[in-house]
């Protein structure tokens, strides 16, 4: 799978300090956010540079999303269930979810982004309850990391931002400086990448040279709507849709194997 191998090449780009202008399967370097690949490169520099090293690192990185789910469910469960029971419940549900297993197995970056997003939400919720600014600052840091891992984090960041605006409107005098500092932390986190990328690749490649834009710009309004309906369906019915995919592609895979 080209998309599978491409993330290895992107990690290798940082590992070998390759020339800046290099084409990947999906455009140039700004075509995908870099944090997953940078993190993988760090571990690969310690354990090895082969593809199987990268696969191992990627799988472990993607499993961190379990920690994010545990953090959020700890808020919802509170003291209603013993810790061990809810740990086993969460892990069992995730392992029985085909969508989760696929995302973890492939060297894709969505699960690491999910981890950062969930932990960012966890600390934001903690701030809303306790009003301790350190929780808000940590939330801003993790949400910035989520954006630098995968653009699927954007809708959730917007949702938290909208809630922050409502909170700010209600208690402006008390918390305005906290939100100002948090905004600075978020901006510095993502700004380090985007300022370098704009300087090297330009505005278009940095913001519009990604898959989200390149693959959708040629679609008609009807095709775009149908694509989003399909995505929403797969989001809320992951088991059914993945069984469908398996049925469609299993015969071909078996032929290739034989």
What Rg is obtained from the alpha carbons, in whole angstroms? Answer: 20 Å
Please mark out the parts with pLDDT under 50 across 5 or more consecutive residues, or reply none.
none
Annotation, overall tally of beta strands: 0
Mean pLDDT reading: 81
Classify the beta-strand content into a percent band.
under 5%
The total count of helices amounts to 13
Could you explain the architecture of this structure?
- The chain is an all-alpha fold.
- It has helices at residues 2-16, 35-47, 51-62, 65-77, 83-95, 98-105, 110-130, 133-147, 154-170, 172-207, 211-214, 221-236, 238-257.
- Helix 4 (65-77) packs across helix 5, helix 4 packs parallel to helix 7 (110-130) and helix 8 (133-147) runs parallel beside helix 10.
- It is globular and about 55 Å long.
Outline:
With 258 residues, the protein is mainly alpha-helical. Helix content is 79%, strand content 0%. The model has no long low-confidence stretch (mean pLDDT 81).
Question: Secondary structure elements and their pairing?
Answer:
Elements: H1 2-16, H2 35-47, H3 51-62, H4 65-77, H5 83-95, H6 98-105, H7 110-130, H8 133-147, H9 154-170, H10 172-207, H11 211-214, H12 221-236, H13 238-257
Annotation keywords:
globular, single chain, mainly alpha, 13 helices, 258 residues
